[in-house]
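Revision sheet: structure tokens.
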Amino acid sequence: MKSNKTTPEFAVWLLSRFLFGKELLEKLGDLEEDFIIKQKEIGIFKARTWYWKQTLLTIPVCIKNMIAWGIIMFQNYFKIAIRNIKRHKVFSFINIFGLALGMACCVLILLWVQDEISYDKFHVNGENIYRLVVSDGERNGSSSPWALAQTLKKDFPEFLKGTRFITGTYNVRYKENKFYETGVMVDEDFLDMFTFPFIKGNKESALSNINSVLITEEMAVKYFGADDPLGKTITIGNNIDLIVTGILENVPPNSHMKFSFLIRPEIIVGEARMNGWSFDGPSYVLLKSGININEVEKKISGTIIKYDKRFNLNITVGLQPFNKIYLYSLSGTDPVVYIYIFSGIAVIVLLIACINFMNLTTAKSSQRAKEIGMRKVIGAQRGDIIKQFFGESIVLAFLALAIAIVIVYLFLPIFNELAEKELVLNFINNSEIVIGLFLIALFTGIISGTYPALYLSSFRPVQVLKNSVIKGSGRHTFRRILIVFQFSAAVVLIISTSVILKQMQYIRTKDVGYNREHILRVTLDEILINKYDTVKKELLKEKNVYQVSAANNIPLNINSFNPFWWEGRPQEDYKIMNFVCVDLDYFEMFGMKLKMGRMFMQDLQSDSTNYIINETALKITGFDDPVGKRFSMWKKEGKIIGVLQDFNSNSLHDEIQPAAFMIYSNTNKRNLFVKINSLNIASSIAYIEKTLSRFSPNFIFDYNFLDEDFNKQYKSEEHLANLLKYFTILAIFISCLGLLGLASFMAEEKRKEIAIRKVLGANISGIVSGLSKDFIKLILVANLIAAPIAYYFMSGWVQSFAFHTSIDWEIFLLAGVIALGTAALTIGIQVVKAANRNPVDNLKCE
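Predicted:
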């Protein structure tokens, strides 16, 4: 109905948003008549005011009615959904369970992603805190000079506070209690910069004394039980006494900063080293709000060069935002990549579950065709039918969500073990999860209900009541597209899992250039370091101890960057390399081989200042024959006596770095390596512990095997492989449920054809072959689509490793065989079942 030209048009439009059809026409008609009368009696302005008043009074009533009718219709949809569940129990179980599995997968990944992105977000000043990054033009490092943070704070007004964060492992004693703990050397500014709440103690003065120590609540309970630790003295190392001045809450799991206690650096290293420019660990700074970080980086870039002339001009200083440290690595694969990967998996598995729902629903469409026809005969419009099926699918989605939550509760402990997390499904204190679960269910209901609603609502009453539902090629095509999408996604996951597992096998079996089997590593205290030569001789007396050595680094994680100069290079023009301080037996123990020159010799006094470099360092020097050439670190000049074959001194993510090896003094050799008899591990370890404790009575014996340390470097990849393996199995299972639905639909659709073929003499194998070939073609198409997609993404992933496996054709063949095998089995069961039915039953005219 058109409004009168003086009727408020916006009011008419507003009513049309809340009233529909006949009800809208009647309301507008009544208002129009009354408006014309009012216009004559009280004038146009007051009549329009009256019209607006009636409109505004009508809208709340309309909203109330809409809510009431919405509740009634939802109840109706719920009853219909429950009725259909009871009527088709097995079908409904498969349908809802498939959705529940997909949603459970999505919820688990949602919890994992939420935990990952929550890292370091609890610090009040987090947005203005940065980690100092030092670059030599080829690589970025988080280790910075001791004096850098305080120098920046002094020289640049943009820097408000700064602290070092030097992590170490210390033996800690209090009376009879003694354990190894992770301690961190920090400056006083640390407590003002970071949010680690106090349980006891005064934050303002807690670290004002260099003999102070702050301990976590967990450490307080471990050492002091129910006693108050404040004011008590603990001993770290061999003779450093510290007074407990505060107790901090335990470090949250979602913090990349881990520690049991905090101390001042002066008590360990002294003022001279603190004010020096040697590299020992990360530093953090707090900047003013609202400043331009790019401009600040330009200003501070040359700070190290300004204060330490030993470095070349390639050494620059940069800033890394604190809240990006955990997710964005300075080398290797960024952890944020795994967030994208698992989020993608969650979406894929959920879509597979939704497609599964669509196929299963349409597979049983003929059983609801008459219901739809009757509804249309008695006046239901297509829109009403669409609303009904959307309502039912949303109801089923929320029922599936309830089951999914139960599945999550059951499998969360296993998931936590695989991912090494402490995830909890908490509805009370985690509103994000509640909202996320609601949106997942709503999204699932809408997506999974779209195709069935549009398809089933298109049935024509006359045809469905005659049991002659429209069979169009377009609908068959769409179902086939859904199946191809499902299995393409599943095959992508199969290929991805296979590539990751192959890369992990490559990592485990690759010759990294040194031996790591049956080698035990122990971190020595100061007493044992000073008595190293005697300790070594005593350990070698045991027949099950084959070799003993020591170094300042472990072979699989050498990160001790220092400036080096060599003959022929301009004076004061240094190049950053790794420095490794070793003893005479180091190379022999680890099976490292020389490329040229000789090893260190005990009888040559000059070898205490000489160097052995690796092949990568040789390439940088440009020497054809480096033996005898002058070489120095920190002006400690000697000669190159040999070149060591390259070995992987870090993760396989990284290229091999240049390194120089030196005998140097025992004081730098904190890491003890002992190669033991693999047949007598327990007795060998007991002997080592007894021997070390004899030389240092307060020593806390703690050890690791080198191969265990090696495997820890690839923890993220191991988690990815394990989780992806199970999610792939889940995706295949849900896809097969969808395929089961389509096979069921096809068998129902062609039941008379099957019956006629049997009557005419066809055998079951022939029928199965004829009806299955279309599905096999779909799976083959899915493989062809999935292969290039998987190759594109996984080739990018393996490229994050400097050393990686190849993606061979066998992986794609294996994925195809798995997909075809599971699909053939699923289809075969359904088709054989249909082919075995009595032809008489199929040919009956209902």
